[in-house]
Fold this sequence. Notes:
Elements: H1 4-7, E1 21-23, H2 25-31, E2 35-40, H3 52-65, E3 70-75, H4 80-92, E4 96-100, H5 110-117, E5 121-124, H6 134-143, E6 148-150, H7 158-174, E7 182-187, H8 191-202, E8 208-213, H9 216-221, H10 224-239, E9 251-253, H11 266-279, H12 288-300, E10 309-314, H13 325-328
Parallel strand pairs: 2-10, 3-4, 3-6, 4-5, 7-8, 7-10, 8-9
Antiparallel strand pairs: 1-2
Helix pairs in contact: 3-4, 3-7, 4-5, 7-8, 7-10, 8-10, 11-12
The structure holds pyridoxal-5'-phosphate.
Pyridoxal-5'-phosphate binds at residues 50-51, 80-81, 154, 156, 186-193, 284, 287-288, 315-317.
Amino acid sequence: MTESLLITEPRLSLGHFPTPLERLTRLEQHLNGPTLYIKRDDLSGLAMGGNKVRKLEFLLGEAQQQGCDCLITAGAAQSNHCRQTAAAAARLGMPCHLMLGGAAPARSQGNTLLDQLLGANLHWCGEHRKGEDIPALKASLVQQGFKPYVVPYGGSSRTGTLGFMQALLEVQQQIETTAFSHIVIASSSGATQAGLCLAQQLWQLPTQILGIHIDKEEVLNDQLQHTIVRLAEAQIEYFKLSLQFDSTQVHLLDGYTGAGYGVVGEPEREAINLMAKLEGILLDPVYTGRAMAGLLDLIRNGRFNADDRVLFWHTGGTPALFAYADELSPA
Ligand SMILES: *Cc1c(COP(=O)(O)O)cnc(C)c1O
């Protein structure tokens, strides 16, 4: 199986690729553990970077192919996915509607501020941060003569998953020596992990993909693992791949969700501070801060061997730092 299967899929160029792959020398020394690298998808472009641009390149390729003329998506108030979708819409000259959780803030900060600068229409949906209100909005836009494309929650559909199959090939092309023994990512809506897992199996790489669950609600409802398997199965069916994929291949760690989605605690604070002060790299409060806290815990508890080569995937999210000034300012 070659990478040619991805080339035939419609794809727009929206980000800056390949993103840098860097060694974390000072963090390695500090932890005295395995070799550590970081994949800088925080530098992927499209209005301050992040993992969603990889999915959007394929999703909006599909939208364009279908002749759609406006975008709808949903997320939390500080959704990076919504911000990158708004930026892509601006670039393509399409109206963009964001269905955001919560109520309109008195003062826009972080991603919400950027959504507004990017010209998106914000709809505040209270408890409904996962797109529950999309069908009603879509119907009303259709009535007004639009042909909306609904970008799935977190960009996680079969099409979005293509972005992270492609991403693993990108890493393989960047390394000259042996493949990574582990890749650690923050996992939430599923396509990042599904794409990496599927690519790892397809190209038979000796790499374990470790997802750090960041959303307590998902853990309680036991949903994410099923979502990842479903996304992988849809891809296998679409390309008629001779691969078996089941939940035993999905490694999800669910001990790091703290007080729930988007709540910064001591582990996230430590991870953000350590990376900033040792490496000059900014993590985000919701996803990568939590995933790095998980990785630090795994290293300290001897999960890896000294000769392991671990890649931490920086999936972005840094604009949210500015919405967490109270939680992150030094006391
Ligand atoms: C969306 C997001 C993730 C999670 O990716 P999924 O594909 O939704 O699991 C991780 N980190 C950041 C910064 C994100 O915005």
